[in-house]
TrEMBL record:
Subcellular location: Cell membrane
Protein name (Swiss-Prot/TrEMBL): G-protein coupled receptors family 1 profile domain-containing protein
Sorted UniProt keywords: Cell membrane, G-protein coupled receptor, Membrane, Receptor, Transducer, Transmembrane, Transmembrane helix
InterPro entries membership: GPCR_Rhodpsn (IPR000276), GPCR_Rhodpsn_7TM (IPR017452)
Record lineage: Eukaryota, Metazoa, Ecdysozoa, Tardigrada, Eutardigrada
Species name: Hypsibius exemplaris (Freshwater tardigrade)
Length: 362
């Protein structure tokens, strides 16, 4: 583990730059956490890289192959899955490598801190963009359920594109200033996990807005949608949906539209419950200051975010028949091609094709 017990091995300016004061005393007075825990976390994170990255990539490819799934909110879903793929394919492997280097090297260098600053900037940008994308999906469902007549006016690529642009601007307005040393600084603990150290109240307020506003939107959407569908089921009043022309010019029935809206709403509520269950432990650890006292817990909170990102494609496939049908069709088509290629008759060899000759008898 990191050798912090010998103060001469770590320069004072590097200590002040790398380590938060709450973590510094802990590592200087107590022994480092066992290496076995870090190794177990590395293997678990590697497994999530393979599963989460593959599942999100497969579903992203399915959306790109289907024109119907790309319509409307499909743009938001594709953007969310692309962020998940980037996290599992690029960001999480870098986090694993950083933790491994910091926990095995004999000392922390200034280069480790510089890499940590860049890595944390990318990680936080991806995380907050994912949060705002979830919020946009929640707003899309609120409009579809609560204001179905106006849904066609907002369910357009231009509206979704502007929403994604706004989410990126809000995220970058918070992550770029600390990267250049404004309003906040980066600190790295003994296990290689970076964190923000706010320098003024403005950054704390803006950070809280980017953290809690998307969560509040998703929470409000899940509560309103659940209440609306529960009330409709109790009263027996069917929900009104606009009749939009289909591909062949015929308008789908209101029952079909209602079922589709119900599937999307169930997906949203299920995603919210899983995301909420994954985020609540992190909030509790921050409020109780347990992460400062037990820095190794910060690694296990990353596992919760892995579960959150890995569950999205599973929820879409489990609760949406359109995704399942397309997945089965593509898988069957690929399997059929392989079976057809293996079952094609091979051309007879020249030896077998040669006609036998009959020799005349003596």
């Amino acid at each position: 583990m990191v050798n912090l017990t010998n103060g001469t091995r770590l320069l004072p300016e590097v200590v002040s730059y790398c380590l938060a004061p709450t973590n510094l005393t802990q590592f200087l007075t107590n022994p480092s956490p066992p290496d076995l825990q870090v190794v177990i976390w590395e293997y678990i994170s590697g497994a999530f890289c393979l599963f989460g990255g593959s599942a999100n990539l497969i579903l992203l490819i399915l959306i790109q192959r289907s024109q119907a799934l790309r319509r409307g909110a499909g743009i938001l879903v594709a953007h969310l899955l692309a962020c998940h793929v980037a996290y599992f394919a690029v960001i999480l492997p870098l986090i694993i490598a950083r933790v491994r280097n910091v926990t095995t090297l004999p000392r922390i260098t200034e280069r480790d801190c510089e890499v940590c600053r860049l890595q944390h900037f990318i990680t936080m940008t991806c995380g907050f963009v994912i949060g705002w994308t979830d919020a946009l999906l929640a707003l899309n469902r609120i409009v579809g359920v609560m204001f179905p007549v106006k849904y066609r006016l907002l369910d357009r690529p231009l509206v979704h594109g502007c929403g994604l642009l706004l989410g990126w601007l809000l995220t970058l307005s918070m992550t770029i200033p600390p990267f250049f040393g404004y309003h906040s600084s980066f600190k790295m603990g003994g296990v290689g996990k970076c964190t923000y150290i706010p320098q003024n109240t403005l950054f704390v307020l803006w950070l809280s807005f980017n953290v809690y506003c998307p969560l509040a939107i998703a929470t409000g959407s899940a509560v309103l949608i659940s209440a609306r569908f529960g009330l409709n089921r109790l009263t027996g009043v069917p929900q009104v949906h606009p009749r939009t022309p289909g591909v062949n010019g015929n308008a789908p029935s209101r029952n079909a539209v209602s079922r589709r809206q119900g599937k999307m709403s169930r997906m949203l509520v299920t995603s919210f419950l899983i995301n909420f269950a994954c985020q609540i432990p992190l909030f509790l650890l921050i409020v109780t200051n347990w992460i400062s006292r037990y820095p190794l817990l910060s690694l296990w909170t990353i596992c919760l975010f892995m579960v959150q990102c890995s569950s999205a494609p599973v929820i879409f496939l489990a609760l949406n028949g359109d995704y399942r049908k397309l997945f089965v069709n593509v898988y069957g088509r690929l399997r059929g091609q392989n079976v057809a290629a293996s079952s094609q008759p091979q051309a007879p060899s020249r030896t077998l094709a040669k006609k036998p000759t009959i020799e005349p008898r003596g």
